[in-house]
Sequence to fold (850 residues):
Amino acid sequence: MAESVKLPDRLAILYCGNTVLLPGVLFRIRCASPSSVSLVEQELCQREEKGLIGILPVCDAVAEVPSAGTMPSSGTGTNLGERSSENQKETSDSHKHGSENQQEVIHWHNTGVAAQALQVSIEVEKTSGRVIYLVVFKGLCRFSVRELSKRGPYYTAWITPLDMTKAGKDEVTAADIIEFSRKFKVTAMELISVLEERQKTGGGIEVLPGTVPMCTLADIFVARSESSFEEQVSMLDSVDLKVRFSKATELMRALMEEFGGNDGDDYDVAALERRMQDAGMPADIWKHARRGLRGLKKMQPLQSGYDSLRVYLGFLADLPWQKASEEWELDLKAVKERLDNEHYGLVKVKQQIFEYLAARKLKLDARRPVLCFVGPPGVGKTSFASFIAASLGRKFISISLGVVKDEADIRGHRGTSPGLLIDGLKRVGVCNPVILLDEIDKARSDVRGDPAYALLEVLDPEWNKTFNDCYLNVPFDLSKVIFVATANTVQSIRPPLLDRMEVIEVPGYTPAEKVRIAMRHLIPRVLEQHGLSFDFLQIPEATVKLVIQRYTREAGVCDLERNLAALARAAAVRVAEQDHAVPLSKYVRQLVSPLLDGRLAGEGEMETEVIPSKVDNHDISNAFRVSSPFIVDEAMLEKVLGPPRYGDREAADRVANAGVSIGLVRTLFGGEVQFVQADALVGKGDLHVTGQLGDVIKESAQIALSWVKLSLVWICLFPNIEINLIQGRDIHIHFPAGAVPKDAPSAAVTLVTALVSLFSQRRVRADTAMTGEMTLMGLLLPVGGIIDKVLAACRYGIKRVILPDRNLKDLVQVPSDVLSNLEILPAKRMEDVLEQAFEGGFPLRQHSEF
Ligand SMILES: Nc1ncnc2c1ncn2[C@@H]1O[C@H](COP(=O)(O)OP(=O)(O)OP(=O)(O)O)[C@@H](O)[C@H]1O
Fold:
């Protein structure tokens, strides 16, 4: 399912002439007119986070109509009213704007698409020296225009979102939609096989069914096919997903006819037979395929089932039954060097990868467990998996299991479409790639079956020799594939799957490690991606530290990389604005894509290009000569990234009132600091726990409250707390921290401290965080994830950490620079925690007094 999108009420509208952008499509636009340049500068370059604008098609660019009150437009064209067909008029509910003097009218269509800017690059025009922006957008979702007005040099619209609303998302899972999408996929596969037989390319449509979310599948197909403006506008107007699927399916059928999909069948079948013979199918599969071919030959092309049988046989012919990448002799010394050069730190993880590769060199066909990298987002799990593939000279594909809810997603749909694995193998074209099973902990079951069963078959060396995909209907040998998996936590991986894997824990990074990773890896990569070099832009170490402290709170480096990219984008704009920027060099002009180049010659103000796949970034650095590099300082940081998102006073502000304590928990995002809030209101003595919580944490809250009550009533542990402060009150415990789901017993100690703070009306220390499970007797038990938790404390500027003394041994793996900044306070009993958590200790009745 596509990500949900929250649109603002008002969007700036970029004039793109009669071009239609559809959701899911990547689109490159050349902005040269003053209005579009100022839109890019004001809406995209100065607002780092959103980068959202609207694109409305113009049904033919300009009309010369004597109309008072119209606004001038920046395009050229002819009168839509005179030229348009009835059909166009129906689909074009255009807005008219003008001025008294100008007689030009822009016929804006009233449905558009919100687009997110993914990349902005700059050119300086050779002759005039004016700045031109090349912006890569991604279409997000449809909107309709309530009101359109001109705001300075460009238009803005008050909008109403049309799809990716709650209703729209529910619609994606409806049974009839799934049926429509299946029909679409079958037709898509027919079209692909027709294109392949005719040796034509489909603009990348062959990768669509397996990789694109269902709600944008039809849109992307229509955008990539050579459909007319009217067809694209009609698609834009189709808010109903079923209508979109049936329009796209119709279009495909028309294309098939155009390519002669239904003509020349004798020729087709002969070509198919040749492809099948060359596919290297094992003997029994070949027997099955030949039977199918004989059946096909007996059928009439218009007979029902003919097309799907032909597509199926084509699919069999395209699978890499034998074709494999040649595995080269591993040079272990070179592998070690590259592993160290490409990945900073993580010595233990790199050692485990090295040992895995060395073991392969010794015994190629040895059965090994599947490596599973487990850790928070952005710590390099995917990067390690692709390193393994590159070292072995194998192709690499990643299959996201986060979206898999149904066994059939892995195993395929009978008679309709293959599962993710077999489809992935067809795309990669070899039978021995490295396949990354990404987010294996997120593969969940529903009423339609448990994907874990299919994954078991995939990962088990006994079974995967004869993997059964329901669409394929014959076994496929997966034993040559190297599987690698990633997960955020082992707890959610199904035990039988976990049994077949070797877990490599990838912990979060310390601030010092993040600085090193940024300086050595992220900054050079980000500069390259934005066409810059160190001659233009330098981000000093001190600035990187500020970015880490003030703009990120993560265990990995994803946000850090995003922030560095934002700085690079802003710097690219500044560089181009400087007076000493010189015209585009010959080198860069060669790099500009031929399509855009052709259009540049036409002096057009606005040029657009649908990007079929990943965009190549062109090195614009060479376009400019600057006297000195641009250095990102603190002032620029705030200008580009906005005011700091995180300060060092957060803990102090949060514990300003009694009833709040600071805990360390482990979530899917690594260790986290958790401010637990307790409150007592008049009631019947019930306990209410709120936040995104699992059952274990709720049970911990119950144990914590029982322990406080027992200690108060039976052993009179707290001389300063009156029993009537608790009796007749409902206790409310809240775990703020956004939408981060939590479930672990390690919050018990924090819960008790919050309750004791509430009842005694004493504030806890703002520099102290704690973690630990406890028994009803108040004894502390060891908990997991201590390293992640200590790193989280360090991100929040916490100075003291209380933990069960039996966890002390786990700290050996924490980097010494982190430990040297922390006071570690081991505790055996809950009383020890309370002693340490409050300023000046906590007055407890001594055991001898009982
Ligand atoms: N130790 C490291 N050295 C160099 N670069 C790193 C290191 N760790 C992470 N990176 C970089 O950080 C970025 C994010 O890494 P990657 O996507 O591999 O993380 P991940 O753990 O797979 O995240 P997710 O769970 O979100 O997929 C990549 O650009 C990666 O190269």
In short: The two ends are 61 Å apart (CA to CA).
